[in-house]
Amino acid sequence: MKELLQALTPGERDWRIASRLDPKRLPAHIAIIMDGNGRWARQRNYPRIMGHKAGVDPVRTVVETCAQMGLEAVTLYAFSVENWKRPRHEIDGLWRLLRIYLRRELANLMRNDIQLAAIGRMESLPGFVQDELQSVMSRTAQNRGMRLNLAINYGGRTELVDAVNSILENARLEGNLDSLDINEEAITAHLYTAGLKDPDLLIRTSGEMRISNFLLWQIAYAELYVTDTLWPDFTRTELLEAIFEYQNRDRRFGGITRACASPADTASLLLEEEAIELPLA
User: Fold this and answer.
1) In what order do the strands lie in the sheet with 223-226?
2) Rounded to an integer, what distance in angstroms lies between the CA atom of residue 274 and that of residue 248?
3) Which long-range contacts (C-beta less than 8 Å, at least 24 apart) are formed by 130-137?
4) Residues 101-115: pLDDT tens digits?
5) Is there a catalytic annotation at residue 83?
6) How far is residue 278's CA from residue 281's CA, in Å, rounded to a whole number?
7) In whole angstroms, what is the distance from residue 49 CA to residue 142 CA?
8) Rounded CA gap, 270 and 281, in Å?
9) In a 10 Å sphere around its CB, with 0-12 CB exposed, 13-18 middle and 19+ buried, how is residue 212 labelled?
10) Residue 156 region, left (φ>0) first, then alpha (ψ -120 to 50), else beta?
11) Neighbouring-strand partners of residue 76
């Protein structure tokens, strides 16, 4: 957090928001559904690929800001298993943009000590995309700062299918298939994100109120932040505002806060129980 404050200009809006954040209650892991590139382009009568190109700068801003804040992980939804339904020329354009991003941003990843990882069914990607990803992942593998996950050819349902199949295959190889007991811990250990904390905060741009098959298992207790801002217009200011709102929410994980168990609440509960016990006339 200190590194971010040092990079900002005192008195400016981003500095004021960042100064109000509690460094001890920052989300460890932020996941982002980067939506709205196509609409951004359509509003300007541009080809859709121009919207994807405009979405590269916010990626750099978000990644760098989160690294400066000292977060453990950021996961970006870059390409879903359903996105193969899009026109071929758009998909090819996305792969070219990814290659440009990886080559251009490698220096920034190294400077910020960021480790790159890709989650999803990588084996189905074009060969040159796999090669580019593997090259950058290998070169950043020894970095010990934030982990940046690019979810590419990713789907929450396919991740769960792959996790269960992996468990079954391991049990078959070990000869204990008949006694196999699949529990939550086993599934978590076989997800693409194994070893990472679950996201604390899920941000979605463009105002759509859905999670689009993204990290279905991991976001069980994530706080959701939806903004009407289209991804190419998403700024550091809005990222900081999302984190500020996150810190002002009451995260109960299915329980209640101590403040909720007030004398008034207890008295109200007793009255309700007495009413239930009253005999019917």
Assistant:
1) 115-119, 147-154, 73-80, 29-33, 201-204, 223-226
2) 36
3) 132/98, 132/99, 132/102, 132/103, 133/102, 135/102, 136/102, 136/106, 136/109
4) 999 999 999 999 999
5) yes
6) 9
7) 33
8) 21
9) middle
10) alpha
11) 32, 150
How far is C-alpha 177 from the geometric centre of its chain's CA atoms? Answer: 34
The whole-model pTM stands at 0.89
Q: Which of 83, 143, 170, 213 is catalytic?
A: 83
Q: Could you give the CA distance from residue 158 to residue 17 in angstroms, rounded to a whole number?
A: 38
Which residue of the set 14, 35, 198, 200 is catalytic? 35
Structure tokens at 187: 């599934």
For residue 219, the surrounding DSSP H or E stretch is: none
> With contact defined as beta carbons under 8 Å apart, do 196 and 115 qualify?
no
Query: Any idea what DSSP says for residue 191?
Result: S
Q: Tens of pLDDT along 27-59?
A: 999 999 999 999 999 999 999 999 999 999 999
